[in-house]
Each structure stands twice: as structure tokens, then as C-alpha cells.
Design a protein that fits this description.
Length: 429
């Protein structure tokens, strides 16, 4: 079967590398891809939001399955465009991708179906939001309703900060129409864990857990990013916790979406926080995480193409997922200055040396080609993932691989997976 992957980051490179192992794969394409993806499959020069052009390409190249990695095309309805043309595609329709596309929708869904999450209120009127802040206790979290490149979530320690956040989103309209509504939410504390799942709308299968380091600089300092590294599995997300989440969070979410007439097929990424009163949902994403995918897929033993097809064809109940006992650690190499401002276009050396290391994978994110050489072309440039017998060994190998790569302005956090919490306890009844 010919397969088209849509996206251009480390997540899509990890998907491409896993699909290449599938016995059922004939030809693999990726649109728009990046310089590293182009070494592994045929890169197609069509943007991820050009739905009609992508569908034309799929129809013209006998594509048996299109796999969408990125959030924007899913939220924008790429799946509906493909389905209307009879083209098979992996991912949620627009009416289900709203689970990520609208924070107000997802919070109201959780409230309606009794899925544990922080207390919240939704506002589409600035004056009402400000008046509510007059009676709130702090900190609170102020969130733009729509997608805002991960920047629309503002933690506010006092009333002044919260009023500033409301004005930034609703008055200055920093995130455009994504700020037409806001959610003001209770600030929850506890360790966070990312859980990726496959679902076909009825059955849900849990991939392994991972934990992401979101702040830009070593020591959890600096601005939030898309993720500077991560590890898998998470020691405190044990079997008992997973079972509890299955009964109270994962399955109830899938059932809730179906009950709302929005059956969800694809990946649901549960962003969880382990509070003292039990696991709660911080956010949903309607797609694979990045860099979560870069530690999860290298540990997955299944034929990924088969799992995608089982989701798209509504037969996920036939599939059991299997993961290696090995641990994985991913270290992101970024351009100095990310996520604020940074330069691009620097030659990258040492890519082959790093990839030749045992159990080491180099996933390209912000890379491009200039005069036949691979150069930096984004904030998060590369993800270096390594597998090891345990997190400590995986960490050593990932940092070894990362140290072999060089480019002007290279930056990486030094503390990925260095502070892992082994056990925590909470009261979930
Ligand atoms: N790493 C967080 C995300 O993919 O949204």
C-alpha cells in the first residue's frame, strides 16, 4: 500500500521511520516533510493546510492511507475533505478534533460526563471574566479557547496578572479569534504525564506513558516550549493507575464523544496531572504529541500501518499493542533563542555519527537543505532518542548521540530525565 504522511516535524519523522518497517508498505510519501524525512521517503511539496491539493495527490498516486500528524489540518477538517472524496485517512473528523480545537468544548464535555478535571468557568465577555476574577482565589490559569501554538495558556499568580491575561487574550486579541472565548481554570499541582492512545470510536488502546520537559532551559527555567525532551515509560504511571484512568478518563472520553455524535477515530493524547486527589485531565490533544511520539514509537513493537488501518476501519478491538521493556529518552537540539527569536540556515554536522550509535535515532524537525547540505530551519531542530535497559542507560546514550551533532547556536537542556519520580500516592477511592 502507498501511504502519505502529512506534517513536517520530529513527530512525523518518527511516524515515517516506524511505517518504513511495515511489510504492507509499498511507497511512502510525506507532505511537506523536512530535510531528514526526505532521506527516508519521497517528500511532496504541498502544505499541510492545502487539503484539496493533498487529496488530489492522494487520488493521483494510489495512496491507500493518509496519516495526519499535525493539529491544524485536523482541526481545520482535512479528514472530512478526504472522506468526501472516498479517500482513506487516519485522524479525527473536524467535529471530533474540536476536542483539541476548543478548550471550552473539552472542559464542558468533561463536566457533563463526570471526567475528572480542574474546576473552571467559560467566558465570552471580558467584563464578566474580570468580575469573576474579583471573587477568585489564586493562582488561576487563563486559557484562550482556540489553538494558539501552545502559548494561549497563562498561569496567573494574582488578580493583576489574571486581569492582564484576560486583556491580552480578549482585548489585544493576541491569539486572534482563538481568544473569542476564554476558560478560567483552577491551578492544579502534581507531576504531569502524557498518555497517547489509539481509538476507533469504540475501542481504545493505550500506548506507553511519557513525560515532557516543557520549559526552555535546564532546571525548568525560561519560557514554555513545545517540549525540550522527554522519556518513556513513566515509573509512577503504573498498571493500577492506568486501569483507574481507563475506567474514569480514557473510556469515558471515547464514550462521551460518541454520545455527542462526534465519534473520535485517531489518536487522543491525554495530558494528565497526578493531583493528591487523583489523576485529572489538564488537556486533550487530537493527535500524536511532539516529542512524545519520538519516545513512544521507537518502543512500539506493532506494525504501525496495521494499527492505523485498524483505527480507520473501526476494528481496533482486533489489535493489542506491545511495547519493548526498554526505556527511551529523547533530547531536543534547538536553535539558541528558541522559543523567542533565533537564527536559521546553519550547517549541521555529525548526523550520521549520531545515528550510527547503538539504539539511537535522530529525528529531524526544523531542518532544511541549502547548497546540498542539511541546515537548521526552525526552533526545535532535531530530536535524538536512545533506547536503553533503563532510563539511566537510555539517557546516557541519548546525550552521547546529541553530543556528536554540532551546529552554530545548538542548545539542549542538560537535565532531561534526570529527576524522575519513582513513586507517588494519591487517594482515588
Ligand atoms: N509536547 C506537547 C504536545 O505535543 O502538544
Amino acid at each position: 500500500m502507498n501511504v502519505l504522511v502529512v506534517g513536517s516535524g520530529g513527530r512525523e519523522h518518527a511516524i515515517v521511520k516506524s511505517l518504513l518497517k511495515s511489510p504492507g508498505l509499498d511507497k511512502l510519501y510525506c507532505a511537506p516533510g523536512n530535510a531528514g524525512i526526505a532521506l527516508d521517503c519521497e517528500r511532496v511539496d504541498i502544505g499541510a493546510m492545502e487539503f484539496d491539493a493533498l487529496a488530489d495527490f492522494a487520488a493521483g498516486h494510489d495512496i491507500g492511507l493518509t496519516v495526519v500528524g499535525m493539529d491544524d489540518p485536523l482541526i481545520g477538517g482535512i479528514v472530512d475533505v478526504f472522506e468526501a472524496r472516498g479517500l482513506k485517512i487516519f485522524g479525527p473528523r473536524k467535529n471530533a478534533a474540536i476536542l483539541e480545537g476548543s478548550k471550552a468544548f473539552s472542559k464542558e464535555l468533561m463536566e457533563k460526563y463526570d471526567i475528572p478535571t480542574g474546576k473552571f468557568k467559560v467566558f465570552d465577555n471580558r467584563e464578566e471574566a474580570l468580575s469573576y476574577l474579583g471573587q477568585s482565589s489564586f493562582p488561576v490559569v487563563v486559557k484562550a479557547d482556540g489553538p494558539a501554538l501552545g502559548k494561549g495558556v497563562i498561569i496567573c499568580n494574582d488578580k493583576d496578572e489574571a486581569e492582564g491575561a484576560v486583556s491580552t487574550i480578549m482585548e489585544e486579541r493576541k491569539f486572534g479569534s482563538s481568544g473569542d472565548r476564554i476558560v478560567i481554570e483552577e491551578f492544579l499541582t502534581g507531576p504531569e504525564v502524557s498518555v497517547l492512545t489509539f481509538t476507533d470510536g469504540e475501542t481504545i488502546r493505550v500506548m506507553s506513558s511519557s513525560q515532557d520537559y516543557k520549559r526552555a532551559y535546564t532546571g525548568n527555567k525560561g519560557p514554555n516550549t513545545g517540549g525540550m525532551g522527554n522519556y518513556s515509560p513513566v515509573p509512577f504511571f503504573d498498571e493500577k493507575t492506568e486501569k483507574w484512568c481507563m475506567d474514569h478518563i480514557f473510556m469515558p472520553t471515547v464514550r462521551a464523544m460518541s454520545a455527542e455524535g462526534r465519534p473520535f477515530s485517531g489518536v487522543i493524547f491525554f495530558g494528565l496531572i497526578m493531583t493528591k486527589s487523583g489523576p485529572k485531565v489538564l488537556e486533550y490533544n487530537a493527535r500524536f504529541g511532539d516529542p512524545e511520539t519520538q519516545v513512544i514509537l521507537p518502543r512500539m513493537k506493532n506494525d504501525l500501518l496495521e494499527v492505523f488501518l485498524a483505527c480507520a476501519e473501526g476494528r481496533l478491538s482486533d489489535v493489542e499493542l506491545e511495547f519493548s521493556d526498554k526505556a527511551a529518552v529523547c533530547v531536543i537540539l534547538s536553535s539558541s533563542g528558541y522559543p523567542l527569536s533565533y537564527e536559521k540556515g546553519f550547517r549541521i554536522d555529525g548526523l550520521d555519527r549520531a545515528a550510527e550509535q547503538e539504539d539511537t535515532f535522530v529525528f529531524h524537525a526544523g531542518t532544511g537543505l541549502k547548497d546540498g547540505e542539511i541546515v537548521t530551519n526552525g526552533g526545535r531542530v532535531l530530536g535524538v532518542t536512545a533506547l536503553g535497559a533503563d532510563i539511566r542507560e537510555a539517557r546516557e546514550k541519548a546525550y552521547k548521540g546529541a553530543s556528536l551533532i554540532d551546529f552554530s547556536g545548538k542548545y539542549m537542556r542538560q537535565d532531561i530525565a534526570s529527576d524522575i519520580i519513582r513513586e507517588i500516592s494519591w487517594d482515588t477511592e
